[in-house]
Amino acid sequence: MLNRYEHFVHLHRQNELLALPVAWGAASARMAQQCGARAIGTSSAALAWSCGHADGGALPVPILLQRVAEIMQVTALPVTVDIEDGYSVDPLEVAALVQQLAALGVVGINIEDGEGDPELLSAKIVEVRRTLGAQPMFVNARTDVYLRGLAHGEAAIRMSVERLQAYARAGALGAFVPGLQQPEDIAALAAQVPLPLNVMWLPGMPSNKVLHAAGARRLSAGPALFQHAWASAAAATRALLAGTLAADDTAPDYATLNALFA
Q1: Residues of the chain whose pLDDT is less than 50?
Q2: Model confidence over 81-104: pLDDT tens digits?
Q3: pTM for this entry
Q4: What span, in angstroms and rounded, lies between the C-alpha atoms of 223 and 5?
Q5: Where are the alpha helices (DSSP H) in 75-117?
Q6: Is residue 57 a contact partner of residue 83, using CB atoms and an 8 Å limit?
Q7: What's the CA angle centered on 132, arms 221 and 193, to 5 degrees?
Q8: What is the DSSP string of 106-138?
Q9: Domains (ranges, CATH) in the chain?
């Protein structure tokens, strides 16, 4: 029987796309498991917002660790955590954080280059591998070439490939390119990068089957599920304030929800 890490790696090798819902706390993690998710990720934005912080490195690391610990308590699924840039420019500090996450049972991380030096991300990945030693961790290296518009067209493909190949040499096991949407661009990247390719859901995204056929192996929800949940809760709140809130026949009852956490 595969352990959580082995199962997570195996999910990237299936003949269908690994669609990865995100959790921002214990309840959303348990809900994702109930809905049939095969693994769970976190979104830096969703988790930060749910804790009262802006996205972009503002979430205090102790709060991140506490929230991840709560998620791990309620799910048996593999969990991968978005750590932005590792919350430090010091590879030793980044590696220490990843070691703490590993101790909680986390099987993977996303770590990004943003607008920083790609060589710095490579150094962080190398140090993570050195610090963890034989302990497995699925390092999903994210490049923001598309998301931040650092290049366009063929230049964006070349820049992304160069960065992701360097991250693979440093020890990354996955390649994450948020902002990448077009099947032809996905195919071009997948053909040149020796890692399973991860894309992020955006409005207008092709179907899961089309993404997989193009070469993507994983689809992350990013902040989308949190935004959907916010919109639904906001609509219900406005209805309550207006005196028009009605029962939702699709909502689970109190006893059903409570039993999930008993």
Answers
A1: none
A2: 999 999 999 999 999 999 999 999
A3: 0.96
A4: 24
A5: 91-104
A6: no
A7: 50
A8: --EEEEE-TTS-HHHHHHHHHHHHHHHTTS--E
A9: 4-260 (3.20.20.60)
